[in-house]
Amino acid sequence: MAAEDESMVHALREKAAISGIGETAYTRGTTQSGLALQLEASLRAIDDAGLSPRDIDGVVPYFPGGGIAEDFIANLGLPDLALSAFIPMGGATCVAALQTAAMAVATGVCRNVLISVGRTGYSGARVSTRLQQFPQFALAAEFEAPIGMFAPAQLYAQGARRHMELYGTTTRHFAEVAVVTRQHAILNGNVVMNKPLTVEEHHASRMIADPFRLFDCSLESDGGAAVIVSASDRARDLKKPLVTIMGVAEGHPESPASIAQRPDLLEFGLAKAAPRAFGMAGVAPKEIDVAEIYDCFTFTVINQLELLGFCKKGEGGPFVMDGRIALGGDLPINTHGGLLSQGHVVGLNHVIELTRQLRRDAGKAQVKDAEVGLVTGYGDMGDGSVAILRRAA
Amino acid sequence: MSTAPTSTPPAPERPLPTPTRESQPYWDGLREGRLILQHCAKCEKARHYPRPICPHCFSMESTWREAPLAGRIHSWTVCHHPFNFFFKSMAPYVVALVDMEAGVRVNAPLRGMAEGTLKIGAPVRLAFEPVTKDVTLPYFVAA
Ligand SMILES: [Zn+2]
């Protein structure tokens, strides 16, 4: 039974590729709608792939917020849409969507699947309003909002505090993630935060939900991003170097709708997804050249590095120190500036950056000779997703 | 509803729970000053938050039993930024996640303990605060 399952999963290895990437400017303040931003990024991704909008036959838009299949048909004139899917996994959606898209193109259901996000997180609805759109947050609304716990910053803070108490992790470790991510952002021309950040400035920023300060939290920003997934054998003929999906998986934690009731606050969906994705890809963590880690909070990066197996449980704090996660270090992460400094398009910018890295098209932030990279998604109270991509050119 | 800044902010309203068919007995219990938890009628395990089926034995039969008010701190946060305007005047406030003796967790404000004294495993006790005629909310105090 187990062997059968394994062979089925491996049947997907490298059958799908990222054929196109596109993004708008990341800003704070736009007059465009989320849908317009999403469509603009989609056109850029389609062009990047060397395709026409007519070639898109599958859409997996971020939901809720932004466009739905009807919008893509109406705006892009899609002649024969064969797949319309939502992945309701919050911040884990975009990378999990790579799995759905890979299944669709590997089986021949679709040829080219468009994954896209359009967000007006700064100029439109803010976080506390957006959360009310999620049915997955019904338990939090009933049991946690009345006692003053609303926002992800508050709900995840208790896990971060527990990690600090159990393992001696400190806000200095958190600051390192924020500072390195900002250094990387400054190398990228399209970011919201383009001024250097020091450890002292991080420590002096206002407290949001202890232990999280302002600079531990991701940005509220406006922007759109899009990615096209195509069958690898077809994508070979497209414009850009081929970047294949070696391994991809999503994972769902125990007590998925309430962190409070989860047996281990520090074990979430990624703990289940990571072994499956590494197994499917046939690589080990030490073979990863560059990683784009979903950074809704600085601590979340530390926690995920542990669950991915880059270090042992409890050792994520010391792991991020001494330049290890900076460009030139053993494991450069968030080479574009992430959600902390580039912009918040629910992590689709992480997929785009990893694709650029593997195309060797990442400009000043290029990781030399990057061959294999990893990208994660994290959200919705602890859903996780991870993809391992390879330069197959 | 937009949360964009306006010159006349709406009057702050406390977010209140909307009990469901599954959860009503829990809220009724709080209103009576008791912690009433859902237990599986077949395998007897307590479960929280309330739901129709026991995930251990899949029984749909459940009973509601009074549980002890004692617990120990599992973790906590101190909320400084009021994501909801109602809590602005209360900030900063501590919210403790507590392992209750019955084997479930309760997340609630912790009052009367200084931030510097908080520790995993510290004993606390559940207390009750009526906030409307129908709704009583839980909070913790030092045991
Ligand atoms: Zn049972």
List keywords for this structure.
heterodimer, A: alpha/beta, Peroxisomal Thiolase, Chain A, domain 1, two-stranded antiparallel sheet, 15 helices, 11 strands, globular, B: 143 residues, mainly beta, OB fold (Dihydrolipoamide Acetyltransferase, E2P), three-stranded antiparallel β-sheet, disordered N terminus
Tell me about this structure:
The complex is a heterodimer of chains A (393) and B (143). With 393 residues, chain A is α/β, with parallel strands linked by helices. Chain A has a single domain, classed as Peroxisomal Thiolase, Chain A, domain 1, CATH 3.40.47.10. Chain A contains 15 helices and eleven strands. Chain A has helices spanning 2-10, 34-49, 69-76, 93-106, 127-131, 138-144, 152-167, 171-187, 199-204, 232-235, 269-281, 298-307, 316-319, 338-342, 348-359; strands at residues 16-23, 58-61, 83-84, 112-120, 207-210, 212-213, 222-231, 243-251, 290-292, 372-379, 383-391. Chain A has a nine-stranded mixed beta sheet, with helices on both faces. A two-stranded antiparallel ribbon of chain A has the order 5-6. In chain A, helix 8 (171-187) packs across helix 12. In chain A, 61% of the residues are buried. Chain B has two domains: 19-67, no CATH class; 68-143, Beta Barrel (OB fold (Dihydrolipoamide Acetyltransferase, E2P)), CATH 2.40.50.840. The relative contact order of chain B is 0.19. Bound molecules: zinc ion. Zinc ion binds next to loops of chain B.
Question: Biggest sheet of chain B, in brief?
Answer: 5 strands, mixed, barrel
For the record, the CATH architecture of chain A stands as 3-Layer(aba) Sandwich
Count of strand segments of chain A: 11
Spatial strand order of the main sheet of chain A: 3-2-4-7-1-8-11-10-9
Please report which band the strand proportion of chain B falls in: under 5%, 5-15%, 15-25%, 25-35%, 35-45% or over 45%.
35-45%
Q: Kindly state the number of beta strands of chain B.
A: 8
CATH class of chain A: Alpha Beta
Could you spell the SSE succession of chain A in H and E letters? HEHEHEHEHHHHHEEEHEHEHHHHEE
CATH topology of chain A: Peroxisomal Thiolase, Chain A, domain 1
Taking pLDDT < 50 over at least 5 consecutive residues as the criterion, the unreliable ranges of chain B are: 1-5
User: What class would the helix/strand composition of chain B place it in?
Assistant: mainly beta
The CATH class of the largest domain in chain B is: Mainly Beta
Low-confidence stretches of chain A: none
